[in-house]
Specification:
Elements (H helix, E strand, L loop, with lengths): L3 E3 L5 E3 L11 E5 L11 H6 L8 H13 L4 E3 L1 H4 L5 H16 L3 E6 L5 E3 L5 E3 L3 H6 L8 H6 L4 E5 L4 E4 L4 H8 L3 H4 L9 H6 L11 H4 L16 H29 L1 H9 L27 H12 L6 E5 L6 H14 L3 E6 L13 H12 L4 H10 L8 H14 L9 E7 L7 H12 L8 E8 L3 H8 L6 E5 L5 H22 L9 H11 L3 H13 L4 H13 L5 H15 L7 H20 L6 H8 L3 H8 L6 E2 L9 E2 L3 H7 L13 H19 L19 H7 L2 H16 L9 H19 L3 H20 L7
Parallel strand pairs: 3-4, 3-5, 5-8, 10-13, 10-14, 11-12, 12-13
Antiparallel strand pairs: 1-2, 6-7, 8-9, 15-16
Amino acid sequence: MRLLEHNSAGEFILTTDIVGDELPPYAILSHTWGAGAEEVTFEDLTNGTGRDKAGYEKLRFCGEQAKKDGLQYFWVDTCCINKANFTELSEAINSMFHWYRNAAKCYVYLSDVSTTKYEASGKCSETTWEPAFRKSRWFRRGWTLQELLAPSLVEFFSRDRKRLGDKRTLERQIHEITKIAVSALRGASLSQFSVEERFSWSENRQTTRKEDKVYSLVGIFGVCMPLFYGEGEVNALNRLRREIEESSNSIHQIRQRLLTSSSGLEMDQVGHLPYAAEALFNSYAKQHEPTCLPDTRVDLLQTIHNWADGQDERCIFWLNGLAGTGKSTIARTVARKYFDEQRLGASFFFSRGGGDVGHAGNFCTTVAVQLAAHVPTLHQHICDALAKHGNIVRLSLEDQWRQLVLKPLSKLDGNCCSSSYVIVIDALDECDNGENIRIILQLLAEARPLKKVRLRIFLASRPEVPIRIGFYQLPDNERYDIVLHNLSPSIVDHDIFIFLEHNFKVIREENCQDASWPGEEIITNLVQIASGLFIWAATACRFIHEGKRFAAKRLDVILHASNSAPTAPEKHLDGIYTTVLKQSIPQQFTKEDREEASYMLRRILGCIVTLASPLSALSLGRLLCIAKGDINQTLDDLHSILDVPEDQTRPLRLHHPSFRDFLLDEKRCADPHFWVDEKQTHHTLVECCMRLMSTSLKQDLCGLDAPGVLVSEVDNSRVEIHLPPDIQYACLYWVEHLQKGSVELHDNDQIHQFLQTHFLHWLEALSLMQRISEGILAIRTLESIAIVSTSSPPRVRR
């Protein structure tokens, strides 16, 4: 594979042919070819010609965009393949799907789509590009099908180089244009889709050479075949179908061998257990979360390692500390060490409001699935437990833990696996049920008697009442605890100094600050202000970093705001959160504008910290009926306290749960412009869910026109189109918000009217989402709320 790069003179040059793992990160261009000799060829580049061709502009575009994205190399099909060499051409066509899939970014250049309209007077103005986008020739060409599906990141640009969006943000439009399943657009394995469905994606596409309509599909079906230009489309298609059939037979044979072997059968059964994917310490959602910097937490980490690796009889290590003292970072560091050593049995990082990671419902099954993956000889024993207890997921936490974890571990032969495994559990205090917390602690302690294999449980949390009570009820010989905020202040200050020094170096280099900035004295001052809280230091660094060229000014704001701050660590944390919020509202606004901006901020942030499961900015806007621009402007200066993904279809998340605690506590968040009334916010979310469901739910929501169809037979992409994330959220959680908001039910009120009209539509939606069990629990909750409301005195109407 040859790549393009700029030489010292700014001209495009080709690399030598690069193979295998030597390939550097590269961008790749997807486009439609111009007529005649418009495109720059391999010969043009090798001869130093072609600059006057129309296609040279596409090379400039791709090279400049790659440079903006930090990529030195890029690939364009017109000139990176020597088409005069038929062997090279054949190899390239059979490799094309993989080349697009392995690209760091794919840029789609739409030469027939513009964002600018030129009038007769010569003036230009912005115009709506979506109609042209839907009609673009790019969607009708044969080769662009694999160029759409293969890469994970596809960005669309107009001919005037304006970014229109990417494969995720334009998902709805692309699905409607191409009829390709949404899950395929999102990167699902193409083998999940039938052969005929994949063929249907290319029905209305054309290629210049008839055979290419077939050759362009080899990557879609994961096969290779020689090229015989001149054989015609029919012969080429017959050969492709034979290749697909032979490949399918081979895969079927392998699958049958796996299914008849013990390991294949085990994984098939274990894979059906409920599994909270985001609970893992190294889940995709947590990939940017930090571990401890070198030379920090040295003594503490050594203590933990000595406990995990030694002969200490105490099976539970509890690291407890106040909010912001760095517990999660330490937990990730411990998990990473034992993961790399292949001794991590499982990890579960709780997060309040995080959906499946906010409660204990999938705790035992998620641990069991990880143990089955990390301890090979455990597969069969867990499979046996599932065969014996087919309804295991409906049983109590005690039964799930004992049958899926403890009993399988007790059957291990210590000679065929590691002698010990570590389970890391973070933020147990974020679990939404205090009684479940107590049960989990009791169950964890039951690992101590295991003989053949030793299980070590590392637990990090705040010292909340349910955990303190549960932990100290355990016998002394089963528990080991360290209070993080009681460590020597000099050790903690040293670690925070290193943390700040490291982050300021990054800020300094990115913003071309003087090498001496900000200086040891100021860093020492910041360490004192942090008062032992790593989250204060991390928030301060993000706030300063986000300021870019105003980084020094933001540092001064923090120093000035902290001069008069009380000495209690929590007050310092409250102070920096208040500073970030105040800075997000420009001082040059009029009083009325500031009031409106603070109201919007309070409404949006209040919902983010109160949601039962994270939503993306797009979905949140639709749920709250707030314009996309207002959401983006409100969140723009809050990156230091919120994880705001560039991809607006990915969920918004708090950097730290202490911000939720701050925002919902009227004593801590003393400024009324920012304090969020939690109950009122639940009321707001109930109203938003009601509005959204009332206007969206209907009979036969997905247009199946087949009353007896099984849910398992409904294509996921159809459900995703008709039930986007905001509607799914409303269906799943409106009752929870009703309960937490202490909303009373009354005859003919909004809830009553919704249920009278849409009760069956709601159940149908839950069924399509395959979450009908949640609907049953919600109905029970509604019944209990109704009983309480009936026994309450009537409201006084005003």
